[in-house]
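tmp note - Cytochrome P450
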Amino acid sequence: MVSRLTQSFSFHSSPESFISSRLEQFTLSDGDSLPFASRIVKAQILNREVHIVTSYHACKAILCHQSRTNDPVEERRADGGEYASEYADVYAHERTSKDGASPQRSRKCTVHARNSNRSHDKPELFAARAAYRQFMGDFFPGPNLLLEDGLAHRIHKDQWRTRLLNLPQSSESLIREITQSRFLDQLVGGQNPQEIDLYAHLKSLIWDILFGVFLSITRNGDGSKFHRLEELQEALLRGQFSTFPVSISTPLWSSARSRGIDAVKELEKSLGTVARDVLASKASDRSFNACPFSEQLREAGLPSDDHLDAEDVISHLRLFTSSIANKALASLLTAFILNLFVWRPSSSMTNSGHGSGTSVSLAELIRSYPDPQKRVIMLQSVLAETERLSPPVVGVMRRVQQDVLISSADRDRPEEYAIPGGQDAWLYLSGANRDPDVYDRAGEFVWDRFLPSFSTSTKDTVNADVPSTDFQPPLPFAFGDGIKSCLGADLSRQICLTVAYTLVDKSIMMAGRIDEGGVVAWLGWERRMDRKDEVQLMARDLKQLPTQRPRRAVKVQVGRQTK
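out:
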């Protein structure tokens, strides 16, 4: 019992440190273990038997495992193909390691049931609902995609993907306006740079964007409705991740979980107004100011088999505007902005090994190109590398519903790892994104890794017209993969790219210094120590649950470039 509690607290304090220490213990106790098996750690967390998977290929195999049913619904990302194509125009090609070999090793994996006898009575191999219901069900009650599996999930997700297909594009102008009014106008109105806590300011900006895109609610006027919704979403998150997971409510005191459940009920009432507007008829005299979300749902139309109702809209609005969505986006945007405006290139931090010979930021480099499309391609490359090194959500859970075998495809040393049915697989996506079997210089920030040519940070290679197709580095798991990939991935990327493009276009400059070694390691800026020391610093300097972010404020000076 004490061991289980110790493991649970250690894991929630720092998954990175917990996993690395267990891997080290495993290697010392079994020096002849094969690399594949040693990348999976078994632990007891919150009274569950959990297998923590850190291999990129093993995570990919589990995330993209196909249903054995032949249902008619097409899942457009089930094999990761469409997910990969989202960055098709910014892939890096001709990527080789220093000895000329491809950095992607032949250690791909497959997953299959231990008992090969097929039966339609058997459950799917992996389920999300069973893994998350205990922690999420009371705070994000259905119907919602988060707590669904199988055919019902596939149909429901296909409906929502159709409804939100054009939301990223239709939201772009609003995101740009909010960035201007809520960030730029407040920080760079004067001549002197202002020092800010970057994460805190971006977190506030993300609230404005999410509430604007999905609810058409702003801070204008007294802002009471805006602030109340923000408070309710924060209370929900604190209740969900409370270390005292018991609902107690008295006239004098209520537990965090009890307050969180109360917030769910109040949010349902507040979001119900938006849902009723979304479902209203297309009358020209509607008095409310429609947000991009509601307009997209109306324009998408509702076919006869699409049973959109108020409960469904409310449930997903609670997810789309949740505090965890806010924190995840703020985390990713913080790392992205730091990479663009504070990091400085050097010869060791570009894919070619040749630096620009200047101390300008990536934002300044990108700004030097007048062609908007080239700017976008470069921003996409930096964002993809940011997703790889600094994903906001470090892992996802799956309940294993049959005895399964994860098999390596290493021709020299094939191996299988068994997970019994009823136990959990926790896919450590943050670790998989730094898998040295997949990525060359896996722990380093290589900003041009995903550019469409073997590029350096110089202009000549960015202007290359015909990229090679020798090698395409696989995309990271910042938004998952396969059938349960994040529905909001496209919008999240649009938000990050639009905010960044606006700052670049408006000649914003930032100056700052990252002194915490764990934050530097999180960003992948320098490799001055071995991996063990990096992990210890990351445990000290980062919060990893529910999302990754620096523990202490990251201060930067924000101003406008003077001509």
